[in-house]
């Protein structure tokens, strides 16, 4: 069973997530928290596998809790619950190594898929969230587009042609399954490629890799 902690200051949000995850036979919500500090205490006490963390919470916000999670519960992976228009918060969550980003109106099946992916040690971002996050972060980054492109292309020199092809699809916000369908590759093979790409580029998650793809203008995007 995948042991999950739900941290959100809104009881109705927590109840909805609990109901959705409870429909999966391999997932159990073992604890709920209303703030970041409580989330850290419960994550350690219940030895959870996955923590769903809201960004905006009292006492301690989700981003601060994310930064402390690896220390208090090193085996736990964090999925960030976010909304549109939080560019700075999302950038911080990316750099803190969150395992994924979900919009609060994420479809139930996608939520379950995200928890399973995180528990398996993989990053998950819904395509809608990825496109929005990458667009927002790219728009707010410093330096000229030409300078960013030059730096990104230099970093991408370690990748093979096939890896660049997969990275381009990450930049579009495609899931592993959708990327596989696009380039006639199994989902498992795409997953292997993604892991290899992240390792070669020194990226913690798909958002960081997608930003590099955007900066490098893979596929002619600027």
Automatic annotation (TrEMBL):
Chain positions found as 4-aspartylphosphate: 54
UniProt-listed SUPFAM superfamilies: C-terminal effector domain of the bipartite response regulators (SSF46894), CheY-like (SSF52172)
GO BP terms: phosphorelay signal transduction system; regulation of DNA-templated transcription
SMART domains: HTH_LUXR, REC
Response regulatory domain residues: 3-119
Domain HTH luxR-type as annotated: residue spans: 152-217
MF-aspect GO terms: DNA binding
Keywords: DNA-binding, Phosphoprotein, Transcription, Transcription regulation
PANTHER family, per the entry: TRANSCRIPTIONAL REGULATORY PROTEIN NARL-RELATED, TWO-COMPONENT RESPONSE REGULATOR
Protein known as: LuxR family transcriptional regulator
Protein source organism: Streptomyces rubellomurinus (strain ATCC 31215)
């Amino acid at each position: 069973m995948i042991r999950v902690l739900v941290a959100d200051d809104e009881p109705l949000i927590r109840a909805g997530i609990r109901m959705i995850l409870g429909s999966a036979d391999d997932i159990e919500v073992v604890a709920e928290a209303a703030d970041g500090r409580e989330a850290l205490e419960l994550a350690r006490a219940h030895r959870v596998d996955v923590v769903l963390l809201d960004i905006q919470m009292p006492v301690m916000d989700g981003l601060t809790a994310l930064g402390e999670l690896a220390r208090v519960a090193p085996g736990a992976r964090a999925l960030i619950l976010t909304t549109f228009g939080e560019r700075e918060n999302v950038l911080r969550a990316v750099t803190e190594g969150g395992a994924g980003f979900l919009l609060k109106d994420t479809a139930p099946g996608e939520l379950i898929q995200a928890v399973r992916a995180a528990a398996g040690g993989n990053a998950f971002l819904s395509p809608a969230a990825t496109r929005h996050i990458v667009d927002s972060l790219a728009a707010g980054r410093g330096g000229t587009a030409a300078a960013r492109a030059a730096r990104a292309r230099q970093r991408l020199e370690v990748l093979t042609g096939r890896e660049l092809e997969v990275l381009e699809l990450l930049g579009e916000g495609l899931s592993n399954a959708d990327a596989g369908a696009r380039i006639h590759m199994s989902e498992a093979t795409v997953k292997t490629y993604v892991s290899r790409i992240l390792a070669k580029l020194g990226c913690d998650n798909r958002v960081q890799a997608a930003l590099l793809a955007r900066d490098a203008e893979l596929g002619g995007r600027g």
